[in-house]
Specification:
By secondary structure, this protein is mainly β. Helix content is about 5%, strand content about 50%. It starts with 13 loop residues before the first helix and ends with a strand.
Length: about 675
């Protein structure tokens, strides 16, 4: 078992300091504009704490150009402040010029602070720092493998200190995998479930009320014969885009790499698949710790981390565009949502103008629309270009190639289902076909080895045992379109006392009016009738009472989530929800422009993440909720959206790791945005 201990710089042993300094030799992009060149630069400054006292005997890192393919001078030096917090050092280079200098120092909370400077004409750089105030109490811990090795470790916080005359009365350990130990355990044992990277934190409290927290990155790996390694380079003509390569990784003969997980240090990661050379776009300059977790076919699992430093002093920007083909099917053609929210600008700057050219002779010449939707009437290949201008005058352009699918018959299978004990009821009424087409074949596959062919819109199935099954529906239309959908379905031995269920149909005289029918809902006991039905129609409206077949007229076409809650005379209560599609003379394109999920960050999320939701109109009632991939609602809240952007904090700490859907439901319809929850 291999483990790493992290020290503060003041206490690092000589070998650890050498290792730490080697890690600081990561690549750094060269600034695009230089004010002066010199082969000798004086770097000086004053380091103080926030309370004004000098930071004595504190180490700083002085670096010159560090891009891997740079031809300029590359130096790394370490300076130390005197008792008054003052430092001064000289960087000298023979034969080459020094173009830029990066100065770094570790803050009292353990994080690194960086400042980068273009070399001035005077050849003298002033780099002053203000550090956070050190507390009277100081947590500290290290760790080592337990006697039984494997993934078991012993942590030790015996070196933690309280102030003079004070004592530690509480220690709270969190291990980065969702587990914690409270109390005052000095040396707790911990067994991790898998190798990986964990953020372990120790919070201490003293008798006199001092509290302080220390977090360290713990890399847990199995000691096998493999060595992960990667290098990286900044992409040409970009400010914040990097290409990573794991080609230098070493494995034994006959073994192979089956999994690579990349963590880019800015909250983004690439954990699915086995990408050997991914590209990543950072949004701004700063210090980022990049890690590669590698696994081989023979079970070797190891992780390596490196640091990337990106300068932030020059005015820089980089246009970036992503796009997705929307699942909404329309006779008008293929709708594509473009998204430029990932464009990068220097901190303190902002994008004030965006211009779009959609490649078909149309576009948006003026304005600041970050995520427009474009409908292409014909299949083909289009070059879409995006220009941006920032408040500080930086301009950038990028183009992407978009291929729209052929105009062939289109359809989409859909399933709604409910269970009562081992019995399942399912309906395909919400499946979609293009106008003039019709479904001529439906095949239900129940996941237990049985199936049902024909063209049944709704059916029931009785499972022989409790469990989770994959329910699938295959449809075919008279124009030759085929579509398949599969969902996880769980049945239990316990038979429900009451079951809620409904179907719906579009009223032919009004394409926006839907008639619902809940006469399939039932109570198991004949002497326990349904006395209450509560309908929520997905457009902000609700109907209470005991209406069996209500009708609802929607303002716009689109996808809505409708729920039915029933209550019986003896108190049995249950709820069932399903998505419906409202067709006809709709305003889908306009609806999509009324409410937008502009962005979510960080994604993947850990304890929480933020959603930026834009509304064209003020005072719009919205339901913001999280659903898992099986359609189960995990969290939700009702809010009033103001006009323009609303940044909303979404709690994710209680979610299990995996994919989820952020859903915003308003009178204009439903908008979904996918995100991933990590440990």
């Amino acid at each position: 078992m291999k483990h790493i201990r992290f020290f503060t710089f003041a206490e690092q042993p000589t070998t650890m300091k050498k290792l730490y300094r080697l890690l600081l030799l990561a690549a750094l992009p060269v600034a695009t504009v230089f004010s002066a060149l010199a082969n000798q630069v004086v770097v000086k400054g004053v380091v103080k704490y926030a309370n004004g006292t000098p930071a004595a005997h504190t180490e700083l890192i002085l670096r010159t150009d560090t891009l891997q393919n740079a031809t300029t001078c590359r130096l790394v030096k370490f300076a130390l402040t005197n008792p008054n917090g003052v430092f001064r050092d000289t960087l000298r280079c023979t034969g080459n010029d020094i173009r830029m200098v990066l100065v770094g120092i570790r803050n009292c909370d353990g994080n690194m602070l960086y400042k980068s400077f273009l070399v001035p004409a005077t050849g003298i750089i002033e780099a002053d720092f203000v550090l956070c105030n050190p507390t009277a109490c100081k947590p500290e811990f290290d760790w080592k493998p337990a006697s039984n090795a494997g993934l078991s470790f012993l942590f030790n916080s015996g070196m933690s200190v309280a102030g003079p005359g004070d004592s530690i009365v509480a220690r709270i350990w969190t291990f980065g995998d969702g587990t914690a130990i409270e109390g005052n355990r000095i040396d707790p044992p911990k067994t991790f479930s898998a190798a990986g990277i964990y953020n372990v934190c120790l919070k201490i409290k003293t008798r006199n009320g001092c509290t302080n927290t220390l977090c360290r990155t713990v890399v847990i790996s199995v000691n096998n014969d493999c060595k992960p390694e990667f290098n990286f380079e900044r992409l040409v003509n970009t400010a914040f885009s990097f290409r990573f390569s794991s080609v230098p990784s070493i494995i034994t003969a006959g073994d192979s790499i089956v999994s690579r997980k990349w963590y880019f240090g800015d909250g983004d990661s690439l954990v699915a698949g086995n990408e050997a050379s991914p590209q990543h776009n950072y949004r701004q300059g700063g210090a980022y710790r990049v890690c590669l977790a590698m696994k081989t076919a023979r079970g070797c699992e190891k992780t390596v981390c490196k640091e990337i430093l990106i300068p932030i002093t020059t005015v820089q920007c980089q246009a970036m565009v992503k796009f997705e083909i929307l699942p909404t099917l329309s006779p008008a053609g293929t709708s594509i949502r473009f998204n430029s929210t990932g464009s990068a600008v220097t901190p303190g700057d902002s994008i004030v103008k965006r211009r779009w050219d959609f490649g078909d002779g149309t576009g948006i010449a003026d304005g600041n629309m970050a995520a427009p939707i474009k409908t292409y009437g014909k299949a083909g290949t289009y070059q879409v270009c995006y220009w941006m201008v920032t408040a500080k005058g930086c301009e950038s352009k990028t183009c992407v190639t978009v291929v729209t699918p052929n105009n062939q018959p289109r359809c989409e299978a859909a399933i709604k289902w409910g269970t009562a004990g081992l019995k399942a009821e399912m309906s395909s009424a919400s499946s979609f076909v293009m106008p003039g087409d019709a479904i001529v074949s439906r095949t239900w596959r129940f996941g237990d080895g049985t199936s049902l062919s024909g063209n049944l819109v709704s059916t029931t199935h009785l499972y022989k045992a409790a469990g989770t099954y994959e329910l699938c529906l295959d449809i075919k239309t008279k124009l030759g379109c085929a579509s398949t959908i599969c969902q996880k379905l769980t049945v239990t031995e316990a038979v429900a006392k009451c079951v809620a269920f409904f179907n719906y149909e579009q009223i032919s005289t009004n394409p926006l009016r839907i008639r619902f029918n809940s006469n399939m809902s039932y109570s198991q006991n004949t002497d326990d009738p349904i006395v209450s039905r509560t309908w929520t129609f997905g457009n902000g409206q609700q109907l209470t009472g005991n209406e069996i077949s209500p009708a609802m007229t929607y303002r716009y076409g689109g996808i809505y989530e409708v729920c039915l809650k029933i209550v019986t005379a003896k108190g049995c209560e249950t709820k069932w929800c399903g998505r419906i599609e409202v067709k006809g003379s709709t305003q889908n394109t306009d609806n999509a422009r009324m409410i937008q999920i502009v962005s979510t960050y960080p994604n993947p999320a850990r304890a929480n993440f933020n959603a930026v939701i834009w509304s064209k109109n003020p005072n719009v009632k919205a339901d913001i909720a999280i659903f898992d991939v099986y359609g189960q609602r995990k969290w939700g809240v009702s809010v009033i959206l103001p006009q323009d952007n609303l940044t909303f904090a979404v709690p994710t700490a209680q979610l299990l790791p995996g994919p989820y859907i952020l859903r915003v439901t308003t009178q204009y319809g439903i908008i979904n945005h996918n995100f991933f929850k990590m440990n």
